[in-house]
């Protein structure tokens, strides 16, 4: 059974992540330049969760990948379901309670933030954007699986330019 992150966690760790302000208590990334990139890319309209926090609770929350299906098939976070971005269909989450905890990710957090905002507008109240998304998950050496559920070290980096945000040697970069 999936659970809801306690209000204590929500208000003490993630407070300030809503709205346009840059959250001062945002999760740490392994690369300060990557953090700077995200600060300039994201709107911070969806509360954040860090990869370490997700790793500790990933079997207790719903995790969705908002990348393109081709990216998801190369690799994704174990237990994550494909939700898509351009192909996003609100019907794919209709069986979830509005109070279920949902964690979204993409390559770096931009697309997942946009889908998160839509879910919040639909009435879901515990929606989180994985800060640094699958790139930071990879940089932290957490496991990835391919479309068959087998462990992999490949990551679809969207394109060559975005691949710079996965540290060298952490994954085989595909675009």
Describe the structure.
The longest helix has 12 residues, at 110-121. 28% of the residues lie in helices and 16% in strands. The strands form 3 sheets. A 5-stranded parallel sheet has the order 1-5-4-2-3. Strands 6-7 form a two-stranded antiparallel sheet. Strands 8-9 form a two-stranded parallel sheet. With 175 residues, it is of the alpha/beta class. It starts with 6 loop residues before the first helix and ends with a strand. It has 6 helices and 9 strands, in the order H-H-E-H-E-H-E-E-H-E-H-E-E-E-E. The chain has helices at residues 7-13, 32-41, 51-57, 69-74, 110-121, 133-139; strands at 48-49, 62-65, 81-82, 101-105, 126-130, 144-145, 151-152, 154-156, 172-174. Residues 6-19 have low confidence and may be disordered. It has one domain (7-18, 28-174): 3-Layer(aba) Sandwich (Oxidized Rhodanese, domain 1).
Question: How would you concisely characterize the structure shown here?
Answer:
This protein has 175 residues and is α/β, with parallel strands linked by helices. It has a single domain (7-18, 28-174), classed as Oxidized Rhodanese, domain 1. Helix content is 28%, strand content 16%.
Please name the defining characteristics of this protein.
28% helix, 6 helices, alpha/beta, 175 residues, Oxidized Rhodanese, domain 1, two-stranded antiparallel ribbon
Strand content range:
15-25%
Structural class: alpha/beta
Q: How many strand units?
A: 9
What CATH first level would be assigned? Alpha Beta
CATH superfamily: Rhodanese-like domain
Q: Fraction of residues in helices? A: 25-40%
Main sheet properties: 5 strands, parallel
Query: Architecture, CATH level 2?
Result: 3-Layer(aba) Sandwich
- Count of individual helical segments: 6
Using the coordinates shown, work out and report the CATH topology.
Oxidized Rhodanese, domain 1
Low-confidence stretches: 6-19
**How many whole angstroms does the radius of gyration measure?**
15 Å
Task: Please list the strands of the largest sheet in the order they lie side by side.
Answer: 1-5-4-2-3
Mean pLDDT across residues:
91
Number of domains: 1
